[in-house]
Amino acid sequence: MIESSKIKIVLVETSHPGNIGSAARAMKTMGFYNLFLVNPKCEINEISYAMASNASDVLDKAIVSNNLEEIIGDCSLIIGATARQRDIPLEIINPRELSKEIHFNDFQKIAILLGNEARGLTNKQLSLCTKGLHIPSNKNYTSLNIASSLQIILYELLFESKNELSNINKIDKNDVATNDKLINFFNHLDIVLKEINFIKDDRPMISRKIRQIYKKANLSDEEINILRGILSAIENHSQ
Amino acid sequence: MIESSKIKIVLVETSHPGNIGSAARAMKTMGFYNLFLVNPKCEINEISYAMASNASDVLDKAIVSNNLEEIIGDCSLIIGATARQRDIPLEIINPRELSKEIHFNDFQKIAILLGNEARGLTNKQLSLCTKGLHIPSNKNYTSLNIASSLQIILYELLFESKNELSNINKIDKNDVATNDKLINFFNHLDIVLKEINFIKDDRPMISRKIRQIYKKANLSDEEINILRGILSAIENHSQ
């Protein structure tokens, strides 16, 4: 069972009021209600409400913020929708893989980010994500708008919830740490890797690749504690 | 492999020009092009084309008819979308079951019927169908419009097609290192962790937990090389 209350739908720099309304409608049809707008380039207006149809309650409760990192701070899985499949230093999964991932791990909050209509999520925004999400589509016409994308993603999550085969024991699930804890670990890691002369400031790529390894592992609190223990041991041994 | 040329999308008594355009767009994003309008209650107009975005070719080729039975005459599977799950003398399947059904059978043409926005397909129209199709949704808000419904149904068909292809390419895609390389990394890791006094011989549990972190990450050759580079840097720094 996927708890829809855990899922944050985060629209980043959206520029058309109608798209915010259609997104709200798509969310509600699949049973999702938590809408966040980060740095919207437009207001929620009467066009939004017209497109939302009877999902105006989702718009009423939408939270507007200018701080993406704050919105995703309590999330242990951050998914960035992307039309690109390559040249991104992120593991790319599809909506069905996402629904399985959510089932087989015990994430705290989960954020699903969708970028601006014209350019999608920037590389910087994607770098804050645990994984990228790509929706299979016609390679000659990949013009999925925000609401269409959400319709498909959230349908997969709803479908997985209704699928009785995927009921597994919660105790077996992996208890994934929040993004804040992960970021603190990454910062500690960078300090130690510089101290032992493994990374230099002019090589950000290698640091991203190392982070990617740990993002793939869906680290638990206990695992982060173990890894930070190793970092401290390296620091103590060096002195 | 599902041949999209076999699939006829049949909108019955549609009353809003914009919905015809959005339907065309949803079809093209998933690679489907054959649109039929049976007894439409409106014209294809400039609103249709605006909503179709760059899927105007689908609208241009749309076939308009007043004879549903003629349109579905060459079909061996006729699917009627319905919001109702009971009180219909038809087997009801969901979009995933439909995609499996098409995949595992050799149908000639296949028709997918979507009814009028307000009342759906009539009982008489449903009686012409082989099966009914119900899309799982929020039971408190089942307001899926024509384009949203098509987006989900055709995504399932496309996904089934691509899934088959991606299984063939799996070996190319998954660049996971061999177990030998992983074991060599683990042995190197143990040596370094003992050197920095993080693990002692009498605590095998912590070593197992650390290995588990890296097993979860499905490490590639390159990632193992990076991690072993870090281990070597720790060794060099300690000397």
Keywords for this structure?
alpha/beta; 10 helices; elongated; Alpha/beta knot; two-stranded parallel ribbon; Helicase, Ruva Protein, domain 3; homodimer; 239 residues
Spatial separation of the terminal alpha carbons of chain A: 50 Å
Instruction: Give the helix tally of chain A.
Output: 10
Largest beta-sheet characterization of chain A: 7 strands, parallel
In the CATH scheme, the class of the largest domain in chain A would be: Alpha Beta
Which strand order spans the largest sheet of chain A, edge to edge or round the barrel?
A: 3-2-1-7-4-8-5
CATH T-level topology of the largest domain in chain A = Alpha/beta knot
Share of helix of chain A, binned: 40-55%
Portion in strands of chain A = 5-15%
Query: For this structure, what is the CATH homologous superfamily of the largest domain in chain A?
Result: SPOUT methyltransferase, trefoil knot domain
Summarize the largest interface: chains and residue counts. A-B, 55 and 54 residues
**Can you tell me the overall shape of chain A?**
elongated
Summed over residues and divided by their number, the pLDDT of chain A gives a mean of 89
Q: Tell me the number of strands of chain A.
A: 9
Question: What order do the helices and strands of chain A follow?
Answer: EHEHHEHEEHEEHEHEHHH
Give the radius of gyration of chain A. Answer: 19 Å
Number of domains of chain A: 2
What low-confidence regions of chain A span 5 or more consecutive residues with pLDDT below 50? 164-172
* CATH-level-2 architecture of the largest domain in chain A: 3-Layer(aba) Sandwich
Oligomer: homodimer
User: What class, by secondary structure content of chain A?
Assistant: alpha/beta
